[in-house]
């Protein structure tokens, strides 16, 4: 069967859960990336340096683990569906409000609050979806779900075309769009059957105590997700700078190459997510991560947008191929009582611990004559090996029946 054939076997409610979670993550990423396109415009209007405005991005990343903890705990207690609706409405409202910031201080506060809300969406949406579909389809659905991030980036890049006409405030007003998703969730999505089956027992569960009982597993997953986030950020954060500063590409060329890279990301995520159903989660992650090793070194020597676009395409097939397995892998590893909070908290803590990647990677580039290609290659290769090693020696629970007694 093809991936399309697999998806056709999903019933109406299962498709609705996937659609809602995919759109939630896509629009979440869309709201995040909108700000990255207007840093210079905001800096000019408020009379600050770009570096000062970019603190908004760090604050967003810093607050995401707290959001994952709070919204995840609420989802474990009160259900995935209602908390997902609240979360989507909250992050879209805060992102929209940031368009009316009178000064940089207000903007920073609002983007920190946005990070709090953004941190809750991935974990809650992923648990709702993975718990709602048949075990044999978890891999392919995981790959599709994770690439909502790439879809969000593409939508942000397309929205950026309106910047000359609407200004940075108008562009950020597009952040209101995700609020419409709440209506879809309310009308079409049912509660996760796995959560509903154990709802009564969860009322007697102390979520923080349960997390503490599984602290070794949580530490392992956080370390793994830190490596994963270095893998993605290490190949993405300075990529546009690499193209502009080192290869002197125009804005149009940078956008084109970046879009090609994200197409590779989507293909990689879906392909390796589906592949993980056949060979296992760990082997799929290892294979995808190691696929980057023969390609990444060419960043240090390649020239021209066509060749660089081809390399970026292959690199992101690898990076997001490994990432495509993450939603299902983390949800299967998570204890039943804390599946709403466990995956999202681990993901966002890993994101936080990797949040200084751009700073450290810039220092590597500057230490080698502003060679950003060298920095991309060195960091990317090192982390690819680390991701593969952590997957190799870690646990796996492919096909786990949610809610079943675990012996």
Explain how this protein is built.
By secondary structure, the chain is an all-alpha fold. It has one domain (12-392): MFS general substrate transporter like domains (Growth Hormone, Chain: A). Helices cover 76% and strands 0% of the residues. The chain is built from 23 helices and no strands. Helix 6 (80-97) packs antiparallel against helix 7 (104-132) and helix 17 packs antiparallel against helix 18 (281-290). The longest helix is centred in the N-terminal third of the chain and has 29 residues, at 104-132. The mean pLDDT is 88.
Number of helices: 23
What is the alpha-carbon Rg in Å? 20 Å
**Low-pLDDT residue spans:** none
CATH superfamily: MFS general substrate transporter like domains
Taking the sheet with the most strands, its summary is:
none
Structural class based on helices, strands and sheet pairing: mainly alpha
**What name does CATH use for the topology?**
Growth Hormone, Chain: A
Mean pLDDT: 88
**What is the number of independent domains?**
1
CATH class: Mainly Alpha
Kindly, what is the distance between the CA atoms of the first and last residues, rounded to a whole number of angstroms? 33 Å
**Strand residue content:** under 5%
* Strand segment count: 0
Spatial shape: globular
| Strand/helix succession | HHHHHHHHHHHHHHHHHHHHHHH
Question: What would CATH call the architecture?
Answer: Up-down Bundle
**How much helicity do the residues have?**
over 70%
């Amino acid at each position: 069967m093809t991936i399309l054939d697999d998806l056709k076997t999903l019933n109406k409610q299962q498709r609705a859960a996937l659609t809602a979670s995919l759109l939630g993550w896509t629009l979440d990423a869309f709201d995040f990336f909108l700000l990255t396109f207007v840093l210079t415009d905001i800096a000019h209007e408020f009379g600050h340096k770009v570096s000062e405005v970019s603190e908004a991005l760090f604050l967003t990343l810093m607050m995401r683990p707290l959001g994952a903890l709070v919204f995840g705990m609420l989802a474990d207690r009160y259900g995935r569906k209602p908390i997902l609706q609240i979360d989507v409405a909250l992050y879209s409202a805060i992102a929209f409000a940031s368009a009316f910031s009178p000064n940089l201080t207000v903007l920073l506060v609002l983007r920190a609050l946005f990070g709090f809300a953004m941190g809750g969406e991935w974990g809650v949406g992923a648990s709702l979806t993975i718990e709602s579909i048949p075990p044999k389809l978890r891999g392919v659905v995981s790959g599709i779900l994770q690439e909502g991030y790439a879809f969000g980036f593409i939508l942000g890049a397309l929205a950026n075309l309106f910047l000359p006409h609407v200004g940075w405030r108008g562009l950020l007003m597009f952040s209101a769009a995700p609020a419409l998703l709440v209506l879809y969730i309310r009308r079409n999505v049912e509660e996760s059957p796995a959560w509903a089956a154990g709802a009564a027992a969860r009322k007697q569960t102390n979520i923080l105590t349960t997390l503490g009982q599984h602290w070794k597993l949580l530490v392992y997953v956080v370390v793994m997700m830190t490596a994963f986030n270095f893998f993605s950020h290490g190949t993405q954060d300075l990529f546009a700078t690499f193209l502009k500063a080192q290869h002197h590409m125009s804005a149009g060329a940078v956008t084109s190459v970046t879009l090609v890279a994200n197409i590779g990301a989507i293909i990689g995520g879906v392909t390796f997510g589906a592949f993980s159903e056949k060979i296992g989660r760990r082997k799929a992650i290892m294979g995808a991560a190691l696929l980057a090793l023969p390609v990444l070194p060419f960043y240090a020597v390649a020239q021209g947008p066509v060749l660089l676009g081809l390399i970026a395409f292959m690199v992101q097939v690898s990076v997001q191929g490994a990432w495509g397995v993450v939603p299902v892998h983390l949800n299967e590893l998570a204890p039943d009582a804390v599946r709403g909070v466990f995956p999202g908290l681990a993901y966002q803590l890993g994101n936080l611990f990797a949040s200084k990647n751009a700073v450290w990677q810039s220092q590597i580039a500057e230490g080698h004559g502003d060679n950003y290609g060298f920095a991309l290659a060195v960091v990317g290769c090192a982390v690819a090996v680390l991701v593969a090693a952590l997957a190799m020696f870690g646990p796996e629970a492919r096909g786990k029946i949610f809610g079943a007694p675990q012996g």
